[in-house]
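Case study B.
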Amino acid sequence: MIAGKTFVVAGYGWCSRGIAMRARGMGANVIVTEVSALPALEAVMDGFRVMPMIEAAPLADFICSATGNKHVIDKHHFEVMKDGCCVSNSGHFNVEINLPSLEAMAVEKTTPRNFVEEYRMADGRNLRILGEGRLVNLAAAEGHPAAVMDMSFANQALSAIYVLQNHKNLENKVYSVPREIDDEIARFKLASMGVNIDILTAEQDAYLNSWHEGT
Amino acid sequence: MSKKEFDIKDINLADQGRWKIEWALKEMPVMRSLMERFQKERPLSGIKMSGCLHITTETANLARALQMAGADLVLTASNPLSTQDDTAAALVSVYEIPVFAIKGEGKETYYQHLNAALDHHPTVTMDDGCDLVSMLHTERVSQLSEVVGSTEETTTGVIRLRAMAADGALKIPVIAVNDANTKHLFDNRYGTGQSTIDAIIRSTRCDYSLNQYLDCRQNLCGGGLWLV
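Model:
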């Protein structure tokens, strides 16, 4: 059960804030760890406790990393975790958890359930790694709901067509998805959900585009 | 069935995969409208594409849309553990899209599959984690001139690509799909939020009783009911 547990989320980017939001929604006490001041400040103002991982790790029943960086959960964190702590990763690569160090620390490794590996430490604590430290939402569940992939993959398909049609005018660099594609997908999705929105009047449109009218 | 090669776990899983792909499409109205448009306009007619993506039911619907747009497409896994073997089987046998992906494949097989996807000699690549673009810039440089551009799905891939561009190492234009508002504000936040909690609950607490329940229904009802 997640309610009443302490759930540590590493990172406060878009993925990790989604995890923090949903863990809180299920009744967990959520702690966020960060390396950048701005997202850390946002996490604090969103009502989460923020602290370094070395202070959060001993409190955690669950730890989930979604930072995109390596060894976010490292040997010195494993040393202070509670017995039974469940550690997982939702970042793209399986480098966020330093598994080789955990392997080296463990005296025994068992697989009590599907997608759960339990590492017994010399002091008797058992630490659990979910989904081999690979992105847990795809390894141990079925990935994102189709309703959100609908928009992601509409972007993929339309971007592939855009790059094919415009490559002669593009340099060898990283481009954002054109604004028109993004807006079109948002309009389509909203319409499919049966949600209507207001339309600017001509007067409002002129007001927004004018700097003459003020106080 | 086309004669193109593929490498999947078990082609007999195709029926099960097909139902799940169709089920997912019901939740994908934007993709459905794109499919209609693509069938008329055929904007990717005859274009060779290789996609390195998580082989899931949603990806299957993206692949179908690209196929309807006229693309000659192959898919490989973007992670050794994320492949849904039934989806891969349906892609190959129902939709005739070659797939190189087996859930739990080792590192060696994973890279063999990436190479197989590039053996297709794509004009456009589609990445989720920058693996195809990385390989094109390291082990298969001779093929770079055949590729006009790529798309990248995820934050991690975009970070790698920006590092390559800053070093002057990137030799093709790439569209960072992750940067679209209709991607990261929804997929990353609500998608990862929901599916990560889903995975933690399934793996640590819930799936044992669920499995027992399914087994019980299977025994009682001759093995068919659990598919309903």
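The mean pLDDT of chain A is 96. The remaining cases will be described in the next quarterly update.
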